[in-house]
């Protein structure tokens, strides 16, 4: 595995779920176990995919709403705790990197990019996934909503992550969802959106600075953004194939 170099071309901050890895099987399986505990019908992968992106509390709340369960703060807290206990036992059992992720990260590292992860998954789970999938050499900083005390779409989550990795030069965010695009725009940071992830809306309609269909196309998307005269302002939209 190629290791990151000491020089820096800039900083790429990545979302995790739906961007670097497909975590739906483990999240859906954990939700289904929680539903079974409560005597409710399973959620399944397709429905779980639509709930991902806003952190575990919202994931659990959304799943219960699908099963007609009115939210109660006391019982809800217990359900969230039960879900986290279940998920901790299978966090990387079926979660896998998307195609070309490791090869592309290696190329980016050799090209001099610093890299970090900014995710609404709790930091300990994100670190476990990155480590278990053999990607930890690329990410000296992996920040969840518990790392700095706020999560996406709060722009501070992205900005503090970039600061923690020692951002030098341009900062570009890479994500797959409405939440990621909103976070980048609020932070004034350009974003490359990946079309294959967990977005609930057509990403082109949200005006990312570049839109790519494969992770292997990410370097082309980054270069398009760097070539723009005013990056991050949402004026020049490109799609790389």
Automatic annotation (TrEMBL):
An example of a GO molecular function for this protein is: metal ion binding
Chain's role: Specifically catalyzes the dephosphorylation of 2-phosphoglycolate. Is involved in the dissimilation of the intracellular 2-phosphoglycolate formed during the DNA repair of 3'-phosphoglycolate ends, a major class of DNA lesions induced by oxidative stress.
Family the entry assigns = Belongs to the HAD-like hydrolase superfamily. CbbY/CbbZ/Gph/YieH family.
The biological process GO terms on file are:
carbohydrate metabolic process; DNA repair; glycolate biosynthetic process
Q: What is this protein called?
A: Phosphoglycolate phosphatase
Q: Which UniProt keywords apply?
A: Carbohydrate metabolism, Hydrolase, Magnesium, Metal-binding
Tell me the superkingdom of the source. Answer: Bacteria
The pathway where this protein functions is: Organic acid metabolism; glycolate biosynthesis; glycolate from 2-phosphoglycolate: step 1/1
- Where does this protein come from, organism-wise? Mesorhizobium sanjuanii
State the reactions this protein catalyses.
2-phosphoglycolate + H2O = glycolate + phosphate
Specify whether Transferase is a keyword of the entry. no
Which prosthetic group or cofactor does it need? Mg(2+)
Recorded hits in Pfam families, A to Z, give:
HAD_2
Q: What are the EC numbers?
A: 3.1.3.18
């Amino acid at each position: 595995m190629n290791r990151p170099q000491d020089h820096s071309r800039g900083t790429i901050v990545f979302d995790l779920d739906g961007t670097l890895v497909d975590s739906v099987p483990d999240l859906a399986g954990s939700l289904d176990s929680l539903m079974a505990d409560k005597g409710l019908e399973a959620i399944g992968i397709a429905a779980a995919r639509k709930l991902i992106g806003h952190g575990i509390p919202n994931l659990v709340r959304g799943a219960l709403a699908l099963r007609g369960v009115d939210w109660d703060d006391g019982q809800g807290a217990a359900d969230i705790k039960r879900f986290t206990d279940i998920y901790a036992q299978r966090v990387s059992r079926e979660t896998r990197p998307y195609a070309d992720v490791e090869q592309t990260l290696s190329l980016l590292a050799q090209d001099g990019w610093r890299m970090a992860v900014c995710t609404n998954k709790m930091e300990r789970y994100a670190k476990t996934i990155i480590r278990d999938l053999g990607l930890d050499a690329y990410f000296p900083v992996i920040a969840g909503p518990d790392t700095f005390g706020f999560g996406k779409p709060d722009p501070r989550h992205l900005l503090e992550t970039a600061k923690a990795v020692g951002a030098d030069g341009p900062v570009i965010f890479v994500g797959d969802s409405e939440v990621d695009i909103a976070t980048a725009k609020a932070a004034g940071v350009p974003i490359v959106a990946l079309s294959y992830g967990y977005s609930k809306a057509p990403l082109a309609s949200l005006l990312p600075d570049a839109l790519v269909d494969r992770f292997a196309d990410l370097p082309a998307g980054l270069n398009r953004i760097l070539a723009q005269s005013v990056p991050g302002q949402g004026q020049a939209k490109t799609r790389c194939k």
